[in-house]
Design goal:
The complex is a heterodimer of chains A (491) and B (145). Chain A has 491 residues and is mainly α. In chain A, 78% of the residues lie in helices and 2% in strands. Chain A has one domain. Chain A has 22 helices and two strands. In chain A, strands 1-2 form a two-stranded antiparallel ribbon. Chain A is globular and about 65 Å long. The two termini of chain A are 13 Å apart. Classes of the chains: A mainly alpha (491), B mainly alpha (145).
Chain lengths: 491, 145
């Protein structure tokens, strides 16, 4: 397995190159792209089953010894995240087959999404902080292009906003890495963990940790840096917005988890209040932000911010229980939100609008599409037995167990607002009369939305299974010595 | 650009930059240098030439199939990485020694071919960005609305 670890990086890369070379043969290019995504998903599942036993796989690229070389590592968390990315990107690419009409620059879309996938999966696999930066850039550069996909002025504005903010964040990331390197002289995550523990949480190290927290919360759209997200979600093409909401923000969350549990364990304990504060403000901001919106996609975007706040809150508890809840939340939210954004795209295709008032009466006009959205809204609102309910339940449980009563109480209160906005949104969209006539949409779009939405039900009824898995992941990541020893003893 | 100084200097500088970038490319894998910096240097040489002699309307003279070159460069680098995977490690570099008559013994690293791929990618990306910016047809077509 160790030898096969580069596959999640290499397969999208070589596919992207092949797709660029055959870009004049559209049929061939599309088939190749979909087949490669399927193989990638299969490999991700293989990786998940391989990591399930608790072994941590290490691949030393170029055979350079620890801690100098670039290392790929896969533990249970990596396995989980790679499966999420592979499944959601595959579903979105299939959706795009129906969503993009014949001459809408498909030949650019497919290579770009593979480069993006390479960056995402590479970020999950790498065991080296500088390489995390490199994969972030690979992912971001293709995202810049994808965001401005139709070339129109709105999208260019969004893409520019996203680009500027991320260039700022990338520069800070680099500053943070050089800060860190000047203090400890290494960028390998396991090595960093050991050396930072030796130094202890001095003020300078806490500041460095804060820089990283800031950079990653930019990617994860946490409070002060969440401003790019609503317009990016609502204006970019649906399938790209869905990858953004489902996977890209999770890369930021994943990096925060790695910082909190592996790299900056001591400094993050000092920063706990800050992280929790950020999480709570994000929860409140996201929940209140949904209220004045008219556009379905914007509501979903603010709800994403809200949910990311919950995930960050779980991480900020810095305990196995909190991590378990956060991981459960990540998995459930990734499938849920991407299915809902694709569902919004489907409804947009059917009615030609994302404005809730113009949409009206979807239940009568397109019962199946509206039922898919209903599953999503019920799960987001936290109605049992869907996965969203359990995600919130475990999080609140973890918060109350640890005695963070005030913060958890606030999170619970915002859950009431989320109940309100989810119901009213669905009501405005599905009930009532008027609105545009419904058109036809290709079956392929329904199937990819159904695929993603079904996980809300699967994880709802199979909650014991996913909870047990989250516990296993949390068990492994809250014991950094496992990761460090695996890297040290790698052959 | 009608500058006599530039017109006199540019051809000389072009040769110097090209030779120096070639030197960096060949020298790079174990010493400072490498495909990336060599690619930048080559592109700078070409751009200087372009600014000097074809600043007004000559962009199409530099409009080579950069996107193809980019793909092939990337493919070459990836293949070298995959070649390393044969010995168990991705991107593992291996050295081969050859004896060439009259020149003597030379050592070829697979990392060198990786560098060539990087070189091609860097030159092609820079040049395709510049030619795209200069392509005034995009604005004539209407551009973004």
């Amino acid at each position: 397995m160790s030898m096969l670890l580069p596959v999640p990086v290499l397969l999208p890369l070589s596919t992207a190159i092949a797709l660029l070379l055959v870009r004049n043969h559209q049929k061939l290019q599309e088939r190749l792209s979909i087949v490669s995504l399927a193989v990638n998903l299969a490999f991700a599942l293989l990786l998940l089953t391989a990591t399930a036993g608790g072994e941590i796989f290490i691949h030393r690229m170029g055979m350079w010894p620890f801690p100098f070389g670039i290392i790929l590592a896969a533990d249970r968390l990596t396995g989980t995240m790679v499966v999420l990315a592979a499944a959601i990107v595959a579903a979105c690419a299939v959706f795009a087959q129906g969503y993009l009409s014949k001459n809408q620059r498909r030949e650019v879309f497919h290579p770009l999404i593979h480069f993006q996938l390479m960056g995402i999966q590479g970020a999950f696999m790498t065991g080296d902080l500088f390489n995390l930066f490199v994969f972030f850039e690979v992912m971001l550069i293709s995202t810049y292009a994808l965001l401005a996909f139709y070339y129109n002025l709105d999208q260019l504005e969004v893409a520019l906003k996203y680009t500027f903010l991320n260039i700022l964040a990338s520069a800070l990331f680099l500053v943070g890495i050089s800060f860190l390197y000047s203090q400890v002289g290494t960028v390998n995550m396991a090595d960093l963990s050991v050396k930072i523990r030796e130094i202890g949480p001095q003020p300078l190290m806490v500041i460095t940790a804060f820089i990283f927290l800031f950079v990653f919360s930019m990617k994860a759209a946490l409070f002060p840096m969440h401003l790019w997200l609503p317009s990016a979600h609502s204006i970019s093409p649906t399938h790209i917005g869905a990858v953004l909401a489902g996977v890209l923000v999770k890369v930021g969350i994943y990096s925060i988890i790695r910082c909190a549990t592996l790299i900056f364990i001591g400094p993050f304990e000092k920063l706990q209040t800050v992280l929790m504060g950020i999480a709570l403000v994000t929860i409140v901001w996201g929940a209140l932000g949904t209220l004045p919106q008219r556009s379905l996609k914007r509501i979903l975007a603010y709800s994403t911010i809200n949910q990311l706040g919950y995930i960050a809150f779980g991480i900020s508890l810095l305990s196995p229980l909190g991590m378990t809840a956060a991981i459960f939340y990540i998995v459930s939210h990734a499938f849920l939100k991407s299915s809902m954004l694709l569902g919004a795209g489907l409804n947009q295709m059917l009615t030609g609008t994302v404005d809730l008032d113009e949409m009206g009466g979807m239940m009568a006009k397109a019962p199946y599409a509206s039922a898919l959205m209903l599953v999503g809204f019920l799960s987001l609102a936290g109605i049992p037995p869907l996965s969203g309910f359990f995600a919130k339940l475990f999080l609140l449980q973890a918060g109350f167990t640890q005695g963070a009563y005030l913060a958890t109480g606030l999170a619970l209160l915002m859950g009431v607002i989320s109940l309100y906005y989810n119901f009213t949104t669905y009501q405005r969209m599905a009930w009532g009369t008027g609105g545009n006539e419904a058109r036809e949409a290709p079956a392929i779009m329904y199937s990819s939305v159904t695929f993603l939405a079904s996980f809300a039900v699967i994880f709802g009824f199979g909650v014991a299974w996913l909870y047990e898995w989250s516990q296993l992941v949390a068990y492994q990541i809250t014991r950094p010595e496992l990761y460090i020893n695996a890297m040290r003893n790698a052959l | 650009m009608h500058s006599l100084i530039l017109r006199t200097i540019a051809p000389i500088v072009l040769h110097l930059t090209l030779i120096f970038s070639l030197f960096l490319l060949l020298y790079g894998h174990n010493q400072p240098g490498g495909g990336f910096i060599a690619g930048l240097m080559t592109a700078v040489g070409i751009v200087l030439q372009w600014v000097t002699f074809d600043a007004n309307d000559g962009w199409h003279r530099y409009n080579w199939p950069w996107d193809r070159i980019f793909c092939y460069g990337l493919a070459l680098s990836t293949c070298v990485g995959l070649f390393g995977l044969l010995s168990g490690y991705f991107l593992k570099s291996s050295a081969y020694e050859f004896v060439i008559p009259f020149i003597g013994e030379i050592e070829v690293l697979t990392a060198f071919f990786f560098d060539i791929g990087v070189y091609a990618v860097v030159v092609a990306v820079l040049m395709s960005i510049l030619t795209t910016f200069c392509d005034r047809r995009a604005t004539i077509r209407g551009g973004p609305k």
